[in-house]
Amino acid sequence: MKRPPPHNWLFVFKIIVESGSITEASERLNVSQSAVSQQIKSLEDYLDTRLIVRGKKGISLTDVGKHYYNVIKIALDKISDTTDQLFGSGRADTVTIKSNYSFADTWISGKLHEFHKLYPGTRVELYSGLWLTDFGEIGRGIEIRYGDGAWGDSSCHQLTRDNVFPVCSPATRNSITKRADMFEHPLISVMGNKIGWQEWCDAQQLSLDVKPSSLYVESNLLAYKAARSGNYICLGINSLVDAFIQDGSLVKLEFGEIKSRENFFIVEPDYYSISPKEMLFAEWIKSAFK
User: What pTM did the predictor assign?
Assistant: First the structure.
């Protein structure tokens, strides 16, 4: 297997491509044009392959040069990001958290002060979103995801082991004496959840087709707040809904519960490194769910 070329040759190649010309690259690197030309010539000689073509309007890439640049850019950017994450000014004391919206509101916001007591002076940046794509423009950090844990780009640690059961407000509970009474009330469904009313009924061996829900929402938290304020029935996930049950705003209906096929996971993506303080946060939240 051919050994990789020296790092400085690769770095110069990347700068040339991004600058668009040897002249511009030499100015960015603060070296002579001849030095830049010699570096790229050494790289091409080493690879025995033409990577760039010089022209009057700058440089262009050969087909193999385009492919090699994409690979080099990813590798060098990863090294740069990891170096900044681990050793950059201020980053070692920053914890960036990208969390499922409901989990951030219900659990993290109420517990974060405990982390700060252990690690005072730590800067925490907490971002919340409904979907994984909501975090596309946010940089590095750790994530709290809701799902089945089947994410091939990450190392996942399961935090919760949830059950799913129906909940409603105390006032609504007073009108329910048997399981069938639930379906006289408007139902709430959470879009995206793998377990819905039909799955819950099937698990309880109820041979009925569930009527369509009256309300569809994007988050579990919105479902609980709607049920708390009206006569809706919704399915609760214990790691999120327990806080509502404990403060008395929602009541668990004891008509059966099933094991959830989705849970909350702390995710450490494989394609970048987390900061030392983020490592501490990850261990702290893992220990909270043991």
Answer: 0.65
